[in-house]
Amino acid sequence: MTGSKIKDSAGYRIFTIFNYLFLTFIAVVTLYPIYYVVMASFSNADALSLHSGILIRPLAPYSLEAYKRVFQNALIMSGYKNTIIILLAGLCFNLVLTAVGAYFLSLKDVMFRNVIAVLILFTMYFSGGTVPVYLNIKSLNLMNSLWSLILPAAINTYNLLIMRSAFAAVPDSLVEAARLDGATHFKILKDVMIPLCKATLAVMVLYYGVAHWNAWFNASLYLQTADKFPLQLILRNLLIDNSTSGMTGVMDADDAVRFAEMIKYALIVVSSAPIIILYPFLQRFFTKGVMIGAVKG
Amino acid sequence: MKKNSSNKNNKSGESLGVRVKKDLKRNYSAYLLVLPVLVFYGVFAYKPMYGAIIAFKDFSPRLGILDSPWTDLYGLKHFLSFFQSYYFGRILKNTLVISFSTLIFSFPAPIILALLLNEVRNRRFKKAVQTISYLPHFISLVVVCSLITMFTSHNGMIVDFLSVFGFETNMDLLNNKKLFVPIYVISDIWQKIGWDSIIYIAALAGIDQEQYEAARIDGANKWKQMLHVTLPGIAGTIILLFILRIGQIMNVGHEKIILLYNDGILETADVISSFVYRRGILESNWSFSAAVGLFNSSINFLLVILANKISKKFSGTGLW
Amino acid sequence: MKRSNLMRKKLTALLTSAILTTTFLTGCGNGAQTSGEANQDTQTSEVSEALQDTQSAEGESSIGQSGEETGAVTYPVETQEKLTVMMRLDPNLTTLGYTSYEGTPFGRELEAKTGIDIEWIQPADNNALLLALAGGDLPDIVIMNYDTYTGGINQLAKDGIAIPITSYLESCAPDYLAVLDSNDDYLKGVKNADKEIYSFAFLRGDISTLSWRGVIARKDWLDDLNMEVPNTIDEFYDMLIAFRDEKGAVIPFSTRNDWVPLLLTDGLITSAFGLPTAEEYQIEGTYHYGAYEDVYKDCLAFLNKLYAEGLLDVNWQTTDETTTTANLLTGISGVHLTTSGRFESIMGSAKEENFDIVAIPSLTAEEGDTPMYNLISRWVDSDQNAFITESCENVELAMKFLNYAYSEEGNILYNFGVEGESYEMQDGTPLFTDLIMNNPDGVAVTTIMSAYIMSYKSGPLVQDKLYYDQRMAMPQQQESAVTWGSTDVLDYKIQTISIPEEFASEYVNLWSDINTYISEMRAKFITGEESLDNFTAYQENLQKMGMDRIIEIKQMALDEYNSR
Fold it and tell me: Which chains touch B (3 or more CB pairs under 8 A)?
């Protein structure tokens, strides 16, 4: 299918060369910060505090100190566990509700669709504010439960609209065909929409997944026992306490301050590594040719 | 509220009640299906929504939101105090300048990246570049800003690079108020280009390959294919994201601004959110920041509705 | 623990609760804002911290008629009852694997010694604590920073979170009473405007613990050049010149971004020009604001001169702490502005043989003058004060529990921990053990301390001088406390006065913009972007913006404070 017999024009070949060059440049430029972060996380604390400028390799003597301190944290394992639970349960709600909502908004010929759409959009811009929201969660008996991180986050309107756009792009003919076969809305959603929009679904998994993975703010408000804290909240505590606080009269913990820099970097590596590892598995949904074949017929 | 679709269908001049009944009968399974979604928004978004009135009140903790008195001037005291601030013009201007600059430069960048990647035939290279490019998204803002500070310092990489062209200085670039916006925008692109391109890459994956075949057979070269197949193929996505982006015009977040600015460059760096932040340090006037927030949100919301209307008129697609 | 119905209605703490300062400082943007979250910032960090002018206590007479301990409390107390105590969780505890003080050596020892069973409720951070308070059930005791609660102690009292404890002091908290009576400033700092006492406060134990930030210089360089530690502004200038010309310091004076203004607002150079400080100060009851005064121009001129001659870091607004510390260590700079807590790491990281630092006092005009001003901590701090709530059914028990920290025995527990584990007694002095200071598993000092003591942060206790001495053991640190502490600052310093409620919003409206203007113009005067010829225009502009009104309002507040 991609094997075109027509040769590329000269112009296109030049373009290709520049393209590769440019993309390489992009890759280098965007790689460098992560590279720096990784190098810094393995560097020696004192050397790092004296160093300014580029890092090509960790500053000797190499040190796993930052990672040791991160993993020394006794609640790290429970942090990982909680985050994974929130992630998996959360994703279920996210995908189901977002798909349903998006499907509904993509329907034509439904009288109240526009009203509902505006009402939903409205919530993206207006909110009651932290206090009423907090009281609301409390009144729903969600305090100190992981559900307080799953249910209120079930739908992200931005994502919902993206999903809707994907569903709306599915050719009418297919939907019609299914309906003539007597399919219910649910069946259409399940058998026509979702299979054809796998790429967008993959993006949803990514967006929602990363959001769950990084979430800490609501956890700090609603969770009261530290063994329920998700990973990011635990890691954040590590960072707060190790940061320089020259403005307060409280004694700076010197050794903590020295390691603050390194720990900052190690934390980034520790918390983003899982996503980076999982991403390639999602990537295959973004390649061409996903839609073909399933459509015809 | 809008009832366009139903108006279009109303050929027989039926009354509203009859039309509603018909609609419910025909679509009840759809409404049933979407019910959980409505419950979600009702319970988690609308139930606490009353709190927004705090912007119009002189909030007193003792009395709570509902019982606090309304402010003078028909509840608009906080808004007026905001508009009458010595710096109002400046922060509004800076907010818009930064927003528009980001819109003009940072919005197209991921699209271009996605298109370029699309032309790469070597799968490994393509995957590698794509994966690497989104990594900066995961770096916390604090670290990103310290990297920015490092690169823009007088002995940092950017100045080194520019010295090749004869540019010399012993001042950190962030001391120069004229450079703040460019630094802000370029670092924004740098951090977001990869991650933001993912959605476009997904959209590109959804283009029917047969259209490319057809175009090739018709003799279209790569450039023409791009114009007539690729771009229209992702046009829906672009338009959607553009409209949503318009809805963020007033949202220049305070964190990055505060991490990068200093007293000397406030003229170009101070925006609405940083202004409110500093005000909040003095005194947590919840009502005031709620008023400013409401102001911002209202503008955003109106712009979005407007953009959506225009888009639907001219391109047929929109947010819904 | 009774349910408090009123709290449901009172969304009191919710004000301040929603706003965090520290979050942004610690990288809360950690990849969290995916495009999918773009607009959902209803609950993402809105940042500010409510620093309030609290009505700190002021009083003339001491509490308790006789001022002596009437009825000492014996520990352990005989009781079967429990107390619930709410306090934000120390993040260091989670590093060690604890989810609260329960189970820590500190917690165990505390319960054993006092004889009281404690249930610890520890929200993740201050924000969560404030929200929890507003949400309903109050614990018996709340330990918190009352500055973060809008309306301060007065509001806490109105909301039922703090009950007046004055009448219970003699019988149930005699040790605390004795401590308060021992120092006038303690009493003044703890009493509220209504003459009642509400809190068990965080008290600093000794004057040597109050001065912790100032200018330092390379001592070894001074010795090499046969120069004395500068006292006057001219000596300071000469020192900078000498450092540049004879020691090759490219940037003689550098300090972290935005700390250069401290030279003005901490009063470090202003005394030389006849100005106590660039911030607010008072002279015999009259309120002044330094940055509005005529002589402020001279202070700015001096800094501008340093800047123009390259003696001050040209990039003083942007250079970060790491770089400036490195500057000092590598000889690029010879003068630095920092806290005494950093001395250890500075000395520890120094590579040069004779590297040494010395604290420089606030500068004066003539030799022999006493400097007018310097930064000074409060004797009584608002952080982690303990309050007894109206939900507490056994106030006497709660009083006795909180009193323990101020007793001799309790003081040792809160400051040094558990004998044999975290400290050993040597000749009557508690000394930290290696478990703390040189932990065999390499755990950081403050991390391991969190499980044994409270005073390394703050709490309802007295921060003991002996504790402080061991943390600040270096001679340079101890000298710096003296150097920076030897000023007339108490003649000029304005304690925490509070703006009368009816003017509060007018004040903030005016002050917010004026403050920005002052900071911005200060930067421009120093760099020379704005010529000092325009100083009068600057003053006129301030007047137009309402500076006189600000002074008027503040004067009212000052008068009210002085009349207590």
Answer: A, C
The pLDDT tens digits of the residues spanning A46-97 come to: 676 666 666 777 776 777 877 887 787 778 888 889 999 999 999 999 999 9
Stated as kind and residue range, the H or E segment containing B123 is helix B123-134
Q: Which residues of C touch A34 (CB under 8 A)?
A: none
Please state the separation of Cα C137 from the chain's center in Å: 30
Tell whether B117 lies on the interface with A, counting CB pairs under 8 A. Answer: yes
Q: List the domain boundaries for chain A.
A: 10-68, 73-242
Instruction: For residue C521, tell me if it sits in a domain.
Output: yes
Before A61, cis peptide (omega within 30)?
A: yes
Both structure tokens of C32: 């969290």
Q: Mind listing the domains of chain B with CATH numbers?
A: 4-45 (no CATH), 87-315 (1.10.3720.10)
Interface test with C, best of A76, A121, A130, A157 (most C CBs within 10 A): A130
Mutant choice from C5, C48, C320 vs B, greatest count of B C-beta within 10 A: C48
| Assigned fold of A73-242 | MetI-like fold (1.10.3720)
Distance between B284 CA and the closest CA of chain C, angstroms: 5
**CA separation for the pair C124, C87 (Å, rounded):** 9
Name beta bridge partners: C82: C117
Give which of B271, B77, B249 is closest to C516, Cα–Cα: B271
Name the residue of chain B whose CA is nearest to A51's CA.
B150
Give the H or E element holding residue C246.
helix C233-247
Check whether C191 has a pLDDT greater than 50.
Answer: yes
C230 shares a domain with C188:
no
Range of the domain at C547: 212-375+497-564
For residue B170, give the nearest of C29, C314, C523 by CB distance: C314
Tens digit of each residue's pLDDT (9 = 90 or more) over C322-369: 788 888 988 899 999 998 888 887 887 788 888 999 999 999 999 988
Task: Answer left, alpha or beta for residue B28, where phi above 0 means left and psi between -120 and 50 means alpha.
Answer: alpha
Q: What is the pLDDT of residues B209-246, one digit of tens each?
A: 888 888 888 888 888 888 888 998 899 899 999 999 99
> With a CB-CB cutoff of 8 Å, which residues 234-273 of chain B face chain A?
236-237, 240-241, 244, 247
Contact between A105 and B319 under an 8 Å Cβ cutoff? The reply is no
Cβ-based burial of A121 (10 A; exposed 0-12, middle 13-18, buried ≥19): buried
Out of B138, B196, B264, the one facing C35 most closely (by C-beta) is B196
Q: Chain B closest CA to A178's CA: distance in Å? A: 15
Residue C303 in any domain: the answer is yes
Option in C14, C36, C123 nearest A159 (CB): C36
What's the number of domains chain C is made of? 2
The tokens for C248 are 């090759």
Round the CA-based radius of gyration of chain C to a whole number and report it. 25
Q: What does the pLDDT read at residue C127?
A: 75
Over residues A271-275, mean pLDDT: 81
Is B285's CB within 8 Å of C508's CB?
yes
Contacts of C72 (CB under 8 A, 6+ apart): C174, C175
SS (H, E, C) chain A: CCCCCCCCCHHHHHHHHHHHHHHHHHHHHHHHHHHHHHHHHCCCHHHHHHCCCCCCCCCCCCCCHHHHHHHHCCCHHHHHHHHHHHHHHHHHHHHHHHHHHHHHHHCCCCCCHHHHHHHHHHHHHCCCCHHHHHHHHHHCCCCCCCHHHHCCCCCCHHHHHHHHHHHHCCCHHHHHHHHHCCCCHHHHHHHHHHHHCHHHHHHHHHHHHHHHHHCCHHHHHHCCCHHHCCHHHHHHHHHHHHCCCCCCCCCCCHHHHHHHHHHHHHHHHHHHHHHHHHHHHHHHHHCCCCCCCCCCC
Q: Flag whether the ipTM exceeds 0.85.
A: yes
